[in-house]
Amino acid sequence: MKTSEDRIRELALEAINKLGPDATEDKVKKFVEEKLASDGYTGNSEQKSGTRAILTTFGINQTGVVSTITTTLSDCGCDILDISQKIMQEFYTMIMMIDISNSPKDLREIQDEMNKIAEKLKIKIFLQHEDVFRYMHRI
């Protein structure tokens, strides 16, 4: 199912109204993602061609972090379109734009794979469809 900017804005406003003073950016994002999923939007069905996602990750730097993430993305059939990383002493941050259009897995399944890595390496990984990422930062 294709999602419009108006639908995402509507869901974000619904989340803000429903959550009231407890509305944080993370809670609103989660609400919108869950509503989109219940609408049948997986980020991988009708928009198969050109579907992109944004992966952000940060934590304590350790050997193999980038390798583990990129290997898992490759195993999922994802293509890295752009990558930026910064290491500041023992901390690192990384942002990737990935193409998931050739993946046999949908966005939720890829997110589950990233969650397993995050737990194993004790880091934070967030994977969002490009549309959700873009529209959440417009509100």
Summarize the structure.
With 139 residues, the protein is of the alpha+beta class. It has helices at 5-19, 25-38, 65-75, 107-121, 130-136; strands spanning 52-60, 79-88, 91-99, 124-129. It is 45% helix and 24% strand.
How far from one another are the termini? 22 Å
Broad shape:
globular
Please work out how many helical segments DSSP would assign.
5
Strand arrangement, major sheet = 2-3-1-4
Determine and state the CATH class of the domain at 52-129: Alpha Beta
What's the average pLDDT?
84
Task: Please compute the radius of gyration using only Cα atoms.
Answer: 15 Å
Structural class: alpha+beta
Helix content, binned percent? 40-55%
Architecture (CATH level 2) name of the domain at 52-129? 2-Layer Sandwich
Question: What is the fold named in CATH at topology level of the domain at 52-129?
Answer: Alpha-Beta Plaits
Order of helices and strands: HHEHEEHEH
Bin the strand percentage.
15-25%
Q: Can you put this structure into words, describing what you see?
A:
Helices cover 45% and strands 24% of the residues. It is an alpha+beta fold. The protein has a domain at 52-129: ACT domain (Alpha-Beta Plaits). It has a 4-stranded antiparallel β-sheet. Strand 2 and strand 3 (91-99) form a beta hairpin. The radius of gyration is 15 Å and the shape is globular. The two termini are 22 Å apart.
